[in-house]
Structure formats: C-alpha cells, structure tokens
Write a structure and sequence with these properties.
transmembrane beta strand, disordered N terminus, 4% helix, mainly beta, transmembrane, 5-stranded mixed sheet, tonb box
Amino acid sequence: MAGKLWITTSVIALLGSGAAHAQATQVVEGQAATLAEVVVTAERRTTNLQTTAVAASVLSGEQLQDKGVTNIETLQFSMPSVTVQNSGQGNSFNIRGIGKTENNSNIGVGVVTYRDGVAVFPAYFQNEPFYDIQSLELLRGPQGTFAGQNATGGAVFITQRNPDLDGFGGYVSAQYGTYDNIRVHGAVNLPISDTLAIRLAANRETRDSFYSVIQGAASLGEPGAVDSNSARISLLWQPNDALRVLFKTDYSHIDLGGYPTTLLGANDGLFNIRTNGPFLAKDESVRSVLNVSYTFENGVTLRSITGYQDGTTQVRSDSDGGFGLLPINNQTVQIYATERILSQELNLISPDTGRLGWILGAYYQDDRTQFPQGRSVAATLFPPLPFLVTLTTEGDNPKTTAAGFGQITYELTDALEIQVGARYSRSTAENRGLTAIPLLGLSLVQDDRTSHEKVTGKVAVNWTLDADNFVYAFVATGHKAGGLNGPNLALVAPKPFESEDVLDYEAGWKSTWLDGRLRTQLGAYYNVYENFQIILGDPVVPTSSAISNVTGKTEIYGLEASAQGRFGNLGFDLGASVSHSELPDFFALDARGPLTGNCNPSTGPASATCRNVGGNAQTYAPELTVSAGVEYTFALGSGRLTPRLDYSHISETWATIFANEALGDRLEARDIFNAQLTYENAAGDWRLQAYGTNLGDLEYVGAVKSGQRYAGPPRQYGVRLTKTF
C-alpha cells in the first residue's frame, strides 16, 4: 500500500510542477483554460457539487467517452471506492464494499441505479450501453433520504440527453476494434416548434467473444459475445416558463451468447471453457419515463416522475464445467424470468431564495418478478444415478414500496447552515413458488409474505468558510428491506431474512484553488451496519444461493480524496480511497465443503464448513483504490491533438466472506492502463480517436459468483470517428 500511495503522491507532485509551465503556454483555441462548474441533481434540485454535503463523483457524457467508460462495468476504473462485478447478464455495483454480489431478485441492491430519475431493474438488465449520455453522478455512502431503502452503499444517477428547443443538431459515431468490435451510435435533435422538440438516439454493437470453447460443439453458442441493439425517443414540450413535460422511452435487446464461465477449478485458463451444454443469455427491456414539472408564481415547483419498465431475461448455462458422454456430475441451469416495475414519485420543491429551503416527496413502486419456467438438470444431486434428474422451479415475487420524505435547509448565517432530512418507508414482499422433481414426485410449495417499515434520514451542518472552501459533517441512516428467499432447488422451505440498517458518520472538505484551476475533495466516513445481509451458497446446489443476516455489527470506515485540475492545455483528475471493513463473530456454512451438522450463527460449532468469519473483510471491499488521468492538448495544423492516459488500481479483494484462498476467493490486485489519442478539427465537428484499454493485457478474475468465476476484459484497441452536426 505504501508503494501505491507513493506513486499517487509522485503523480500529484509532477502535475503540480508542470502547472506553471502549462499556464505559461498559450492555450489552444477552443480549449477551456479553467474548470467548468459541476452540478449534482441527486437531492432533487440542482446544486454546485463543491457546496453540497455529499461524497460524489460526476462525469459528463464527453468525459465518460474520453475515459473509456462505455458501460457500468468500466465505471470502476474512473472513480474511487467503486468495484463492479460483471457476471454475464448482471453487473453488481459495490461502493465502499457495499452493494450486491449475486443476481438475486429477492435482495436489495445496496447501490441503486437511476436512469432519468427512475430506479432501474435491481437484479438483471444491467448491461445497457452508455450512449447519448448527459451526465453520470455517483454518490458514495447511504442515501436514506432521497434514494430511500436499498441505497445503503450509495446511488448512481444517469441522465440521458434531453431534446433541445434551440435548434437542429446531433452526432453519429462509428467504431471498429479488436475482437471484430463494431459499434455505431448517434442522435438527432429535431425542434418541431418553439415549444416542442424530439430527440432520437440509437446504439448498435457487435463483438466476438474473448473466450474459447476448448471442448464442446461450436453450435453450443459463443459465451461472452455481444450483439446489442438499443434505441431511445425523447419528447420535450415546454409551452411556457412554468410548465415542462419530458417523455422518454428506451428499448434494449442484448444477446451475450451465454454466461462466459464455469465452476472454479473446472476450466483451463481464464478464457477457456469446457462445456457439454448449450449457452444462452438474452435480455430485452423497455423503459418509459414521464417527467412533468410546474412552477407556481411563488416559485414553488411541483414535479411528477412516472416510470414503467418491462423486461425479459433468458439464461442457459453449463454450470459444472464438465464434458463427457455420461451425464454424471453434469449440471445445466436454465432460467426464464420477467420483471415489471411501476413507479411514481412526487416532489414539492421550494424556490432557491431566502434562508429556508425545503423539499417534500412521496414515492410508490410496484415490482413483480416472475419465473414462469426454470430448469436445472443435475446428476450431481444423486451421483450414483447414470441419468439426468430434472428439477423445475417457478414462482412469482411481487414487492411494493411506499415512502414519504422531506428535507429542510436553513441558513443560520451567511456561512453556516443546517440540513435535516427524513424518510418513512414501508415495503412488502411475497414469494409464491413451486419447486419439483417430477421424476421422483417430490415438490415444495411456497406462499409467504413479509413486510418492513423504517424511518431513515440525515442531519448535516455545512460551513462555507469563504468562496473557495466548504466544510461539512453529517450523520445519516440507511435501510435495506428484509424479505423472502425465492424458490430453490433444495426442496427445503427457505427462511426469511431481516432488514439491514446502517448508521453513517461523515465529514468532508471541498476546496477550489488557483482561480478555479484546481478543485479538491477530502472526506472521511465511519459506517456501522446491523443485520448485514449476505448471500450464501446452497449446500445442495452450490450455484444457487440464499440470503442471510450477519448478527452483530459490521464496521466499514475509510478516507477518500480526489482532485481535478485544468491549467490551460493540461488537464488531470485524481482519486484515491483507503478503507477497512470487518465482520463480527458469526458462524456461516460454506456450501463448497462436505455437508456437516447444524451451523448455528452464534455458536457454530466450528468445523471445516461451519466457519467463524469474524474479523474477515466484507466482499469486494478493497483496502485501496486509485484512479488517475492526465491529458494535454497540442495545436496540430488547424485542429487539436489530445493524448490522454488513465490509470486505475484496485487492491486485492475477497469474493466471499469465507476468505478461502485455496477455493479461489481471493481476487488479485489489478492495475489497469487505458489510453486515448484524439484529433479534433478547428470547427469541432469532426473527431478521430484511437483508443486502447487494459494496455498491459492483464488477466484477472473480475468476479466470483455462485461458485463460478468471471474474467475481466483483456486488452482491446481500435479507432472511433465522430461527426457532430
């Protein structure tokens, strides 16, 4: 760790030493000389990031492209305290070690992702590409007031570009890269009148798989390939200054060829797969958002955000890694699931005048996940039998959430203000399912219901020392609702799990230096979680899982620092986090070992599989993360040439709470280098880019889920041409 911190300090020193030279150099025409203002909207009103009491990172759509962030997975290489685990059709966010480690629809995500103000699907459909993006805001720490339950680790707000009433315009971008990667995306803005505009955007991408099926028929599929089609239509109607109506509909169809994985220890190399079963991995989803706001004569704004989402996911995976003529020890899992979410949020927002500011809100969500058919073919359950035993599962998991929230901000003086926010949430979850082994005439029927309610909130003190320095401290709480474990393959009635609660203490200092050329953010946090929710493997079917609670208090604390600079032609950004997490004494059954007797969470007894995980780190909670990027713009002919280099370090993490290195739980530290060379003409309407990601071609395990491992993407490079009109 000391070496990494020394590297970071050295980079800061080198950039600082070059600042004077950069200022003295003539700024290339069209290049901003200082940093632009950064705003956040996550607290339901637009505020300056430097004077908002929240630990956050914000990137514009152009910055996302320059950093090579094209989807959720690649976001982890551009921000501190973030890890993302890609498991085929699911990407699981973890912020400060809190998030989700499995694609399980019954557990809260820990990090809630919003698109255009609507919380997206919590389990599947996480591979939507980034195209025509306006901005991305990532908030670290519990967001119990505005994001509500399940945001115990943080929240991500993605804003896609809105129609513009001012004029016709748009862009088209074409890309070709390694693995025969072809991507074309673009958008067009069409003003219909002075009050009505439409924006159309689309994305098309194909790519060969990184993986090779080294034993098995080619007709079984191409796991890890990409065939993606997405489109969006947006409509803005603004008849006057008071009323604004914005409607968007997204469609996405993604074919990933299959899950690119096998069980730990069953394959030869990260990118080689043995299989005797066909692969399938497809997602199709539609999302519609209606955002209506009206500002009254007194400045108060009433806003309504209505969301509708409907998706279907299909999975077929060889989950044992085996290959042979006899189906002994072979297991194929097939899942077909649909999810439909209806949501409604109402906000009443005070004007930004006077010492008192306030916001009131109400929220309702109805989420229904259905498994109309599911199948696991497994001889592993009964090794002596030389034939396949079919287990079927089907179920319906409806969940509803209702909440009311509010926050007031009062300026005690011109420099000192207090904020008090609160949210009341009530949630219900049902589990109606059937698991059966038709061959043996065995079945298990589930029909359960549970409900939870909680008040969360935040109390903050904000102090503006002067125009360039802002200090804050707050205490906040968060809540992840309890629920019911879904239909399983063990033919044993699953147990419900309890709510998870967190108490968060944070303090921070944000500062602006050198006449707006340099900004810094420094923060510290201490989180205490009670009834921390974890996912444990099924002792009968290791590729299935169930949710449980850690008794006692789980602690996570750390420091975060970031900086952004613009000195004429030189631009840079830095981010780093140091954290520590520790589980309390708690006995848990490691399903990967031989079955033993009972494993009581409090008393054990300890054995090879009943493990006390006390003192172990939380999963996917690196002690150190570092991200750094630097770019410099040169005049070249009548245009501009900008080389950019980005670096990311994520220290070692553990994929399970058991921290068993022999079973593949340890994920090695990784250092990733990305680069981009951009040429832009004088008019700024043509841009040619050469890019490379994972330049060192580092092979690393990006995630381990349900006893299966997933590789991080290898080195890729290519060219991209963009025309703006």
